[in-house]
Design goal:
- With about 325 residues, this protein is mostly helical.
- The protein folds into 3 domains: about 1-65, no CATH class; about 75-155; about 195-329.
- It is about 70% helix and about 5% strand.
- The protein is built from 12 helices and 3 strands; from the N terminus they run H-H-H-H-H-H-H-H-H-E-E-H-H-E-H.
- It has helices spanning about 1-10, 20-40, 50-60, 60-65, 80-110, 110-115, 125-150, 160-165, 175-195, 215-240, 245-265, 280-320, and strands at about 205, 210, 270-275.
- Helix 9 packs antiparallel against helix 10.
Length: about 325
């Protein structure tokens, strides 16, 4: 059938090169079987119009060939719901609060509006950080997707897993906890980094601004590096959720450095009053509350880090006790 041969040639152009011959032979056999079945029912060979109707039902050659192409996607359907959930959480913990603060200043603070005549342009930091967070989360999930495909972790599942008694190894790192740490860490990094600059560019009020001495700027960049390292550790725990001695030691070192930096930053005031401003009492009260909130946040962070260090030491001791020692000789 000339029309069938022409159709197969069109399909073959879009097939994977290495398997085009086998796939074309399979499609040809299916088409001929369908035509012969229809001819048997009619009691005569199919006409050209009937042959065209069969090929029309099969569809465009490119569409038919696409069914035999490898189905590649950046994030597969298995991880897509979790990916959407993480993006929603980032929107709730970072984007929406940022927008609410921006709206509050834009509506109720005339001095802020006077210093930011381009209101739309003042949203540039939010757009930059939101795009950065979106790209980073997408990259993390794409990496996990590639690992699933390479190791075929989902394909290795059997129905026996439904009846197996669940037993959680203490070495297993919670994937949900890792995702939550990544989301919170990225939101804090975006808030801390601002517009890829130091907090000295942030103006809280006409008479209050964030100020950092050169020594304190060193704390700023150290904390930023620790935040990035913590996000990297959470990403590693998400990709390979298993505690090891090396990973526990690295986590404890990061927590110890973070605790030291927090202790050194406790005496530092985050903001100070710019001399010569109006309404000195109100401004001083506002600055005092901001600095108090800053120090309370540091105290909470220090307690969390101390608890993580203790927990890491306990886990590290279990790893060292349960690791078999191989005798040599």
């Amino acid at each position: 059938m000339e029309l069938l041969d022409r159709y197969l040639r069109e399909v073959t152009q879009w097939l994977p090169r290495k398997q085009s011959s086998d796939i074309a032979a399979e499609i040809s056999a299916d088409l001929q079987a369908e035509a012969e079945e229809q001819a048997h029912g009619l009691g005569r060979p199919v006409s050209r119009d009937e042959e065209e109707a069969i090929l029309t039902r099969w569809g465009h050659p490119m569409l038919v060939a696409s069914r035999y192409q490898p189905q590649e996607s950046l994030i597969g359907p298995a991880l897509l719901p979790t990916y959407h959930f993480v993006l929603k959480v980032l929107s709730l913990v970072y984007v929406l609060p940022w927008l609410f603060v921006w709206m509050w200043f834009a509506i109720f603070d005339p001095s802020w509006r006077a210093s930011h005549p381009d209101l739309v342009g003042s949203l540039q930091p939010l757009a930059f950080n939101a795009l950065f967070l979106f790209a980073l989360v997408t990259g993390i999930f794409a990496t996990v997707e590639r690992r699933h495909r390479r190791e075929a972790t989902l394909e290795a599942w059997t129905a026996r897993d439904l009846t197996a008694t669940p037993s959680r190894d203490w070495r297993d790192v919670s994937r949900a906890g890792s995702v939550l740490e990544i989301v919170i860490g990225l939101a804090v990094i975006a808030w801390w980094s601002g517009l890829a600059g130091s907090p000295s560019s942030l103006v809280v009020d006409d008479a209050i601004r964030v100020t950092w001495t050169p020594l304190e700027s060193g704390f700023y960049w150290t904390l930023l590096a620790l935040m990035v390292a913590a996000a990297g550790m959470s990403t590693a725990n998400l990709v390979r959720p298993k505690w090891t001695g090396r990973r526990l030691r690295l986590q404890a070192a990061l927590d110890a450095i973070g605790g030291l930096v927090v202790c050194l930053m406790l005496p530092i005031a985050l903001v100070q009053v710019v001399p010569g401003g109006a309404d000195g009492d109100r401004v001083a009260t506002l600055a005092r509350w901001i600095n108090l909130s800053w120090r309370l946040s540091l105290v909470v962070a220090g307690v969390v880090l101390a608890a993580r260090i203790v927990l890491g030491i306990v886990r590290l001791g279990r790893v060292d006790r349960e690791t078999p020692v191989v005798a040599v000789g």
